[in-house]
Design goal:
mainly alpha; 25 helices; 6 strands; 58% helix; globular; DUF7788; vWFA_dom_sf; TROVE domain-containing protein; UCP015417_vWA
């Protein structure tokens, strides 16, 4: 097949599992995910199982929870026993919230869950509200203003005051009626949801087992956490934070809290103490005990930030316990309610006395405001507030430090595709990963990023003495265009090496190509990889190992096959994939071997296939 720009490529790598690994990126169509899943499972169920969890894993995977939900729901529908046997790993590899989300998908379908995980959901909602305000509310308010002005001019003061009072009473009555209608609608919805769950439990044995498994996971972990708390030991994990409170969002959809309460307070042990109570009264009493004995004390003991925020105890908020995404989203709130302590915390982080969380953030989420300002584009409905430079700088440095602690990339040069097809989120990710990789390399190519479209540019991104904003701005000198000429990048690297008399031993050992893989035609009936091999050999150099890092769901073209030595195929927005090709960690560098190395992490070793 050919890419969108005419280059020779492969429709498949020759391995369905490698195809899944390479094409699984955010915003990939669900129908394609299902096809990739079916192919990978048919080829090797054990590897496919690991690939599914790798999609969602926060520390060792792609951190793509939306696509992880879709894959797990597919697994539940097609291989239920395997799904149930491995559900416990999802709460540790991804988040405790995932078990509740998947349970709600079993009740109401996966579409609402995916909609809630859509990163554009709030942008679309803001657009809807804005459109409604511009098209409906604003004209109506103008008409009312004209009418009221006319009334004020024509009526006496007493008469106008009476009209205003009448209007106030009418508005209050209307609000009371609307509130009563909304309350009634909520009650009806709650009854329908509860009835739907009860009916599902009566007719679907698999759902009953699934719900019991989720309740068992929470009950067992909460008991262990309570024992640790009572012994004065540290409570690991966030089970208490995500354990459903009565009638919270997940409990409304699945009635899961009742199942957890019955696990912790079985009737045969606790019924005698409340012998005269009806079942509903007994359940109500046990729910109250659950809140007092588990949820509230464990959340307080674990210093869950939401406990302090929800009770306006800002002066006690432990900022070092605030998750990275919460820190970014709520920064303005912290400054408003506790500005002095928040600034003091940032100063302590600068000095190295404390740490700021950054692990759950994707690189492009940190630099997004700077890249948007540099390249001058705004996504639809994007109304991000101006980012605080200090917080972003500290989060970025923490991210860089975390990557370096995993090992050096060696002599490596990142190549960032800035062609027209990358416009939007893929461009943000491309620039972010390029900057991050440039900081994690060593040798003479350290702090260099090669950008390409029509004409490639080799850009020096200095980390010393330059802010993150300035590092992003240093990429302004690049040449933009609609083409994606990859081989021009290889020729530029050879020209630079020859101009500065760089010997074969100093040539970059790896080239990380961050792109959507829609390259220009190489010429001579060869693929881009084959053309690069020819050019490097002619110049007296050995072709560096090339990592093709896919950032966009497009034609599905593969630049190499799964067994191609000296190349690798990866994808996604997370920095975690860099761990797979650290210097000296692979005996044979091929797309298949790198995928298997990424899946060989200890956290995936306990996954098993049952059916």
């Amino acid at each position: 097949m050919r890419t969108e720009n005419g280059a020779l490529a492969f429709r498949s790598s020759g391995s369905a599992c490698v195809d899944f690994f390479f094409e699984m990126v955010p915003r990939v169509p669900d129908i394609l995910i299902e096809r990739l899943l079916e192919g990978a499972w048919a080829e090797n169920p054990q590897t496919a199982q690991k690939l599914i969890f790798h999609v969602g894993a926060v520390k060792e995977g792609k951190q793509d929870r939306r696509n992880f939900y879709f894959c797990m729901d597919w697994l539940r529908r097609h291989h239920f026993e395997t799904f149930l046997a491995n559900l416990q790993h999802s709460v540790h590899l991804v988040c405790w919230k995932t078990a509740l989300g998947l349970l709600s998908a079993a009740v109401e379908g996966v579409a609402p869950l995916l909609e809630r995980e859509d990163i554009d959901r709030y942008k679309r909602r803001r657009e809807e509200i804005s459109d409604h305000h511009l098209n409906v509310r604003r004209p109506r308010c103008r008409q009312r203003a004209v009418s009221r002005r006319q009334q004020k001019e024509t009526l006496s003061a007493a008469a106008y005051k009476a009209v205003v009072e009448q209007r106030r009473q009418a508005a209050a009555a209307s609000n009371r009626a609307a509130a009563a209608t909304a309350r009634e609608a909520r009650q009806v919805l709650a009854q329908e949801r509860e009835g739907g769950v009860r009916q599902l439990e009566q007719r679907d044995g698999q759902f009953v087992r699934f719900k019991e498994k989720v309740a068992e996971l929470f009950a067992d972990q909460l008991q262990r956490d309570k024992e640790a708390m009572e012994s004065g030991n540290r409570v690991a994990g966030l089970c208490a934070k995500w354990a459903p409170s009565f009638k919270n969002a997940h409990d409304k959809r699945t009635q899961i809290q009742e199942a957890i309460v019955r696990k912790l307070y079985p009737e045969e042990r606790f019924r005698l103490a409340h012998g005269g109570a009806s079942d509903a009264e007994f359940l109500s009493l046990m729910r109250d005990r659950f809140r007092k004995e588990y949820l509230s004390p464990l959340r307080a003991y674990s210093r869950v930030p939401e406990v302090f925020m929800g009770t306006n105890r800002w002066a006690e908020l432990p900022y070092s316990r605030v998750p990275s995404k919460c820190m970014t989203l709520r920064e303005s709130v912290f400054r408003k309610h506790d500005g002095e302590r928040f600034e003091a915390f940032l100063e302590q982080v600068k000095r190295g006395d404390k740490k700021v969380a950054a692990g759950a953030l994707l690189p492009h989420e940190i630099i997004k405001p700077f890249v948007k300002n540099t390249f001058g584009f705004v996504e639809n409905g994007d109304e991000d507030r101006e980012a605080d430079t200090t917080l972003r700088e500290l989060q970025w440095e923490r991210l860089v430090r975390d990557v370096k602690e995993g090992g050096q990339l060696g002599s490596c040069i990142p190549v960032s595709d800035v062609s027209g097809s990358m416009y939007g989120e893929p461009l943000l990710v491309c620039v972010a990963l390029g900057l991050l990789a440039s900081r994690a390399t060593s040798g003479i190519w350290r702090e260099f990023v090669c950008t390409f479209s029509n004409q490639p540019s080799l850009v020096r991104v200095r980390s010393e003495g330059q802010s993150l904003s300035e590092q992003c701005a240093s990429l302004q000198e690049i040449n933009w265009g609609m083409d994606t000429d990859l081989n021009a990048v290889f020729r530029l690297l050879l020209q630079v090496a020859q101009k500065h008399s760089i010997g074969p031993e100093e040539m970059a050992k790896k080239i990380l190509v961050f792109s959507d893989m829609e390259f220009n035609q190489a010429g001579g009936g060869r693929t881009n990889f084959e053309e690069a091999e020819k050019d490097f050999e002619a110049a007296g150099y050995r072709l560096p190992q090339i990592v093709f890092w896919n950032l966009r769901s497009s034609s599905g073209a593969k630049p190499v096959v799964a067994t191609q030595k000296g190349a690798a195929l990866v994808s996604g927005f997370s920095k975690n994939l860099m761990k797979s090709f650290l210097e000296g960690n692979l005996e044979e560098f091929t797309p298949f071997s790198l995928m298997m190395k990424a899946l060989s992490r200890e956290c995936f070793s306990d996954l098993r296939v049952v059916d």
